[in-house]
Amino acid sequence: IRRGRDVCINRSMNLIDHAKNSLYIVAPYYEFLESFYDGIKKARARGVTDMKLLIEEEAMKDEKFKEIVKKKYSEICEIRSRDQVFGTSIVMDEGEEAFIILTQEIFKGMSYFGVDTDHIAFGPASNFYFNYLYKTAKPLEFE
């Protein structure tokens, strides 16, 4: 378990920086898309071509979220949406490693904690679950 916003973002960036073939991302919040973008763009430039982004439909009501998805991510990722997603996650290289970030508003501030790959089955299970969610999601269409 990893705790704290910066710790969770740093761990996510480490996975993004080490991806060789694929990156599968679930991101329901603008904050994570903004933090991950430069790393994901660099991954694309170094040859990571299988990039998928799964977002929550409700998040598209946020103008900043919609703008970053449309103007930045749509050029480098295949994007689909679901009515609901659970947390933020990064799955790299078909499940070689995975990291899930959960957030919760506690008292007057946001609390962040992440679940890291610490078992041989966690990465492949995360990959399987991401693919299930992605295949049953709707391709994102912009107006």
First-residue to last-residue Cα separation: 40 Å
What is the makeup of the main sheet? 8 strands, mixed
Broad shape: globular
Give the neighbour order of strands across the main sheet. 1-7-6-5-2-3-4-8
Helix content: 25-40%
Strand residue content? 25-35%
Question: How many separate domains make up the residues?
Answer: 1
Per DSSP, the total helix count is 4
SSE sequence, one letter per element: EHEHEHEEEEHE
Radius of gyration: 14 Å
CATH third-tier fold name: Endonuclease, Chain A
Features:
143 residues; alpha+beta; 4 helices; 8 strands; 31% strand; globular
How would you describe the overall organization of this protein?
This protein is 37% helix and 31% strand. An eight-stranded mixed beta sheet has the order 1-7-6-5-2-3-4-8, with helices on both faces. The relative contact order is 0.21. The chain is built from four helices and eight strands. It has a single domain (2-139), classed as Endonuclease, Chain A. It has 143 residues and is an alpha+beta fold.
Task: Kindly summarize this structure in a few lines.
The chain is an alpha+beta fold.
Would you spell out the secondary-structure blueprint of this structure?
Elements: E1 2-3, H1 5-18, E2 22-26, H2 30-45, E3 50-56, H3 63-71, E4 78-82, E5 88-92, E6 97-106, E7 109-116, H4 122-135, E8 138-139
Parallel strand pairs: 2-3, 3-4
Antiparallel strand pairs: 1-7, 2-5, 4-8, 5-6, 6-7
Helix pairs in contact: 1-2
